[in-house]
User: Fold this.
Amino acid sequence: MSAKFQSPKGVHDVLPDDHLFFSYIKKIVRHRCRQSGFRRITTPLFENVDVFTRSLGESTDIVEKEMFLMESKSGKKLALKPEGTAGVVRAYLQHGMAQLPQPVELYYIEPHFRYNRPQKGRYRQFHQFGFEVIGEADPAIDAQVIFLAHQINADLGIADKLSLQLNTIGSLESRQKYKEDLVSFYTGKERSLCEDCKKRLHKNPLRLLDCKEEDCQILASMAPKFDSVMDDASKEHYALVKEYLDELGVPYTENPTLVRGLDYYSHTVFEFWSQSEGAQNATGGGGRYDGLVEEMGGQPTPAIGYAAGIERLIDYIKEAGIRPPNKDRVQVFVAQLGLPAKKKALPLLNALREKGINTVGAVGKDSLKAQVGLADKMNARYALIMGQIEVKENTMILRDMERGSQETISFDDAVDRMVELFGDNTIDENKLWEE
Ligand code: AMP
Assistant:
């Protein structure tokens, strides 16, 4: 029988087994980002809607169809954040980060919301990690951001399953010129375009190049190429990005049709695609957004960023057969029978936990046999068992749950014996400050 209440369409619970994967990815992201000088930022789950309409572009899919909109009691229009960059740039400007030494390097790990048609790997609430480098135009930064993304894929064990797609969409000026060329190319051919592309032609002609409809793709292959209008500075920037990637040993495939959906991009754009399942299954993507800070009211400030979808990464990690370490595993199960045993067991549980040993204690009045059965179901590594005789003799039975063997030990030695087996993992107070 299905439960009375179900989660809303397109959103999902992250259950304990999936949290092992989440924690694993977050740990790698934090480690790699910190190592490269990035600091973490968390922006609110919702913003004033213009933060997104202004930055992503009025005619993008996200703004036109995919935002979760709300209105405050005073009538202010708000939106749940569909992506991370706009909020980070808003925060950069709001908190005067332009006055800090540049570039400012920030990373985030956050839920995002898009009202799209749910399917495998596409949800209405999903998690992304991302990073942004704001305040530096040098192409070496592009290569470093791409390298960091690649390195995280490698740490996760899936770099060789993904192919890095790379393109440049040039400076804002050359892009403007290119848009005009595209509009004149398509004018008169509208009848061959799908309904979406007909609408997009005057609002966002670049989008016609990555439409998936067959007729649109045929026309796109005949459309003028961006090369014809790209200025020399953009060409040089792109050439250097490729040279640096070669130096760093990051393989890439040049893909002249990759444009990324949002208005704020310029110059370098990139995505990681699954080798096996085609273009829809990107795990992450990013690019330069040199015009965005100014568009949002700041001084002209070059910037670049990347974001990856955690749920999609988890799918690929699982497919590759990778299991992250199970930090949740019960290491010791304490079984006891009778009030005197229970009284002795309680401080023992705490003493073991203080040593960083995952310990579970039965508190019910079940027989010892039933309690050991429970330890087995929980996949506990060891059981410490105390019945009436053991209480009287100040001993415990130490049972190896994997081997099925057991021995009697002194109650006073129990903590030391467990520390011998699992190590002393008492929390280092300094480490408490680490996220
Ligand atoms: P985007 O900036 O839209 O390319 O998003 C970056 C990454 O976030 C994508 O490559 C996906 O891995 C992930 N992503 C985007 N939208 C969704 C979604 N609706 N559900 C799950 N993951 C998503």
Summary: The mean pLDDT is 93.
